[in-house]
Amino acid sequence: QSVLTQPPSVSAAPGQKVSISCSGSGSNIGNNYVSWYQQLPGTAPKLLIFDSNKRPSGIPDRFSGSKSGTSATLDITGLQTGDEADYYCGTWDTSLGTFYWVFGGGTKLTVL
Amino acid sequence: EVQLVESGGGLAQPGRSLRLSCSASGFTFGDFGLSWFRQAPGKGLEWVGFIRDKVYGETLEYAASVKDRFTISRDDSKSIAYLQMNSLKTEDTAVYYCTRTWGIEVRPDYWGQGTLVTVSS
User: Fold this and answer.
1) Rounded to 5 degrees, what angle do the CA atoms A77, A62, B111 make?
2) Contact A35 B107 (CB under 8 A)
3) Helix (H/G/I), strand (E/B), else coil: B109
4) Which of A72, A97, A111, B43 is deepest in the core (most CB within 10 A)?
5) Coil, strand or helix at B116
6) How far apart are the C-alpha atoms of A91 and A98, rounded to whole Å?
7) pLDDT at A96 over 90
8) Cα–Cα distance between A23 and B21 in angstroms, integer?
9) Record: contact A101-B108, CB cut-off 8 A
10) Can you tell me the distance from the alpha carbon of B79 to that of A62, in angstroms, rounded to the nearest whole number?
11) CB atoms within 10 A of CB A56
């Protein structure tokens, strides 16, 4: 059971927009920045979004992130077949008196 | 170009030990923290632990599932981080990734390609 909650799957047609949600609590998303990672099949995760809404260099502006309260959202516009991947949200949590990283269970994106 | 390369994975029997290495290049190793994550077959990402950089006292934290069994260390002179795994259990079977991290919050940015650890008798 993951600390952060994501939908198991989303799908949309090429060229369309999709949103992936990530829900947490006050001890994680509510007070901290969120990162998003893309994991293409058979590869390592890659950072897409950091500090909830910033993109590393080289990440297209089709990918954007936002945060409100204890939830975060990853938006992908102009979907391409190459975007088919698992997407994970992550942040840090301090609810147990120590510092640790938590993730959502991942969302599988299918581009129909 | 930032690169992280894990090695040392393989097959181990329950109760035995294994040491993973993470060799880094393309950045000033000592200026960053290092984290280890794992991903069991067909499952999501799980944080294993981290070691901060010197600025933050090289402090360590571990997930409850591996605390007292796993140890993270770093050798800044060689740009290598290690994950010593003792008393391995079948549930430790996973691909292990090392990541470069930044800030006191040890936020992961670059990931290695991963190394598979299989714990089985």
Assistant:
1) 120
2) yes
3) strand
4) A72
5) strand
6) 14
7) no
8) 34
9) yes
10) 35
11) 12
